[in-house]
Amino acid sequence: MLEIALGSALMYYFATEAFEIKKKPAEAVYYTETLDSRQDSFSRMHREPVLIKPALEDQFRGIVRQAYDYSCGSAALTTLLNGYVGTQLSEQQTMNGLLKFGETEKIIERRSFSLLDMKRFVGALGLESGGYKGEFSDLVTQAQPAIVPISYAGFKHFVVFKAYKNGRVYVADPALGNISFDEQRFKDIWENNTLFLINVAPENRKKFLALQDSDLRHVEDATVNRYAFVDLQYPQFYMDKIADKASTIRLDKNLNEESENFGKPTYNFLRLYYKSK
């Protein structure tokens, strides 16, 4: 028994010394591929780690996600302050500030925050800000992120304008993440052409809301409409073909008066359906 225990201990020691055992990161996924069989190798299989992250993480990159259905204003303001000014606020801290320095009674009554509430809170932080009304060209040429109100999907909503490029408007949406609109679509939903800006010296501006390559990977609206209801795995014509092969055939008279073959014999496929007792 002693020899067996000693042998097991020695085997464990040499195994741990021979192979470098490293802690695997949580985001690592290992895929395996077969090596070229014509090449001599200690192992016929090759394993390599690939680091991945949830798509949701990139979708809300740089965005403070709203915690409540009525808190898009506080989440949008927190996103703008953190991403452009460089603060490190949570949405709850911003909400507390808006309630303290804003029109508290009106906030509670309407269950939302206004641009005036935002201006007062930003002023309490020692920053200049203001709400303005302008044209779409003003929003684009001012070259800085701004909070803009939109009417979208039947709701009034606050988002952060990030950039405009090649006919698309890119925004940080506290509810949906990093999304984009066609220029005309954005103009249609932009509420009263209003924007809220924070004045920050150029040397102090942060670029956490700057446009990135991942933001450009959008799907055109026309593409979504074209393929939204298409079943690529089992298209209907294929299922019809399979069903026809599995059915019996009956020769009937064509009773469709609008058909060119009205009154002529027509083959009808009778599909069989089964059910358990």
TrEMBL record:
| UniProt lineage | Bacteria, Pseudomonadati, Pseudomonadota, Gammaproteobacteria, Moraxellales
Indicate what this protein is called per its UniProt record. Peptidase C39 domain-containing protein
In its UniProt record, which GO terms are filed under biological process? proteolysis
Q: Which organism is it from?
A: Acinetobacter kyonggiensis
Signal sequence residues: none
Which InterPro entries does this UniProt record tie to the protein? Peptidase_C39 (IPR005074)
One Gene Ontology cellular component term attached to this UniProt record is:
membrane
Question: Which ranges carry the Peptidase C39 domain?
Answer: 66-197
The terms under GO molecular function for this entry are:
ATP binding; peptidase activity
